[in-house]
Amino acid sequence: MEQFFNYDDLKEVYDIVIIGGGPAGLTAGIYAARDNLDTLVIEKNFPGGQVGITEMVENYPGFPDGILGGDLSEKMFQHARKFGVQVKNGICSKIESDGKYKIVSFNDMQIKAKAVIMASGAKPLHLNVPGENKFLGRGISFCATCDGAFYKDKVVAVIGGGDSAVEEGHYLTKFAKKVYVVHRRDKLRAAKILQERAFANPKMEFVYNCVVKEVKGEQKIEAITLYNKVEDKEFDLTVDGVFVFIGWTADTEILKGIVEMDDSGFIKTDEHMATNIPGIFSAGDNRLKELRQIVTAVADGAIAAKSAEKYIEDNF
Ligand code: NAP
């Protein structure tokens, strides 16, 4: 992992620079490097992206008993490294065109690339209610694997009704004595297998038709105020912590105004993962698409790398 923070071996020019070291970016790296392309992956946190903060991955083919998210991330990282991909920690701040090349600014450096693959993923949506900012990182969390252990024998609320809320809520019952799942509608959106497991868990309780109005507390979270839309009534739920899983928004600010996106910042591509700007490709959760899963991210990554390779062959 020390290579991840060591920049001595950086080159001035790469064939492909990939922004984001999650499943999409690392897979793009593996495919590019196996075709002998000089490839750099820039990752702002740790390799693996969201998978790295997922407790257990149960739907990635080849692992019938599931695989820990941290283990799968580490294997993908090592896989990319094995084929010579450089994976470096850094925050990418700008992507500009310079003739045929793209100039990628990250940390205090500028790197030239023949093609760029944007695989920066997505970031969690916030509730945007009073009290949320006050308790960010000290009671409000977006990651059960990171923060669940702080809630041993405590009561927590999970907000959301999708796969993340139900799966992470179930995981939190390892620690918490009670997990409320607060959902704004009267039925969950999560996959049926996850729902069935959650309904069978005696530590989980479902609070439907409710939205969070406020997170309350002096030094620490004491309660959340909920509004029941059907009964038109507000009430407080006493909790020690709140885990928010209400969806994701694309992490694509640096390409705003450069490539075409939808209103939420998801990048529009064709089936070759090409954006409207020649030489810039997009793969994974930051791309406008229907199904955001590890398998679709790795598929995007492979296609983006192959398309970038063809672009380089045709243009350099
Ligand atoms: P998601 O599927 O977008 O679900 C977000 C949930 O939050 C929905 O139930 C939504 O309610 C609710 N919500 C949205 N905005 C809200 C707000 N402002 N206040 C209250 N509730 C709000 O997000 P996700 O669960 O994070 O999943 C994201 C993607 O990752 C999905 O494609 C999912 O399948 C995938 N994923 C898969 C797995 C797995 O396969 N094991 C695990 C985790 C995630 P509505 O239902 O009313 O819209």
Q: What can you tell me about this protein's structure?
A:
This protein has 316 residues and is of the alpha/beta class. It folds into 2 domains: 2-123 and 248-315, 3-Layer(bba) Sandwich (FAD/NAD(P)-binding domain); 126-244, 3-Layer(bba) Sandwich (FAD/NAD(P)-binding domain). The protein contains 6 helices and 19 strands. It has helices spanning 23-34, 69-82, 144-147, 163-172, 192-199, 294-315; strands at residues 13-19, 39-43, 56-57, 67-68, 86-89, 92-98, 101-106, 109-118, 122-124, 140-141, 155-159, 178-182, 204-207, 210-217, 221-228, 233-238, 241-244, 248-250, 280-282. The strands form 5 sheets. Strands 1, 2, 5, 6, 7, 8 and 19 form a 7-stranded mixed β-sheet that branches. A 5-stranded parallel β-sheet has the order 10-17-11-12-13, with helices on one face. β15 (221-228) and β16 (233-238) form a beta hairpin. The protein is elongated, with a radius of gyration of 21 Å. NADP nicotinamide-adenine-dinucleotide phosphate is lined by residues 59, 159-165, 167, 184-185, 189, 211, 245-248, 292-293.
Any idea what the shape is? elongated
What small molecules are bound in this structure?
Answer: NADP nicotinamide-adenine-dinucleotide phosphate
> What name goes with the CATH superfamily of the largest domain?
FAD/NAD(P)-binding domain
Domain count, please report it. 2
CATH architecture of the largest domain: 3-Layer(bba) Sandwich
Radius of gyration using CA atoms only: 21 Å
Low-pLDDT residue intervals, each spanning 5 or more residues = none
What would you call the structural class? alpha/beta
* CATH fold descriptor of the largest domain: FAD/NAD(P)-binding domain
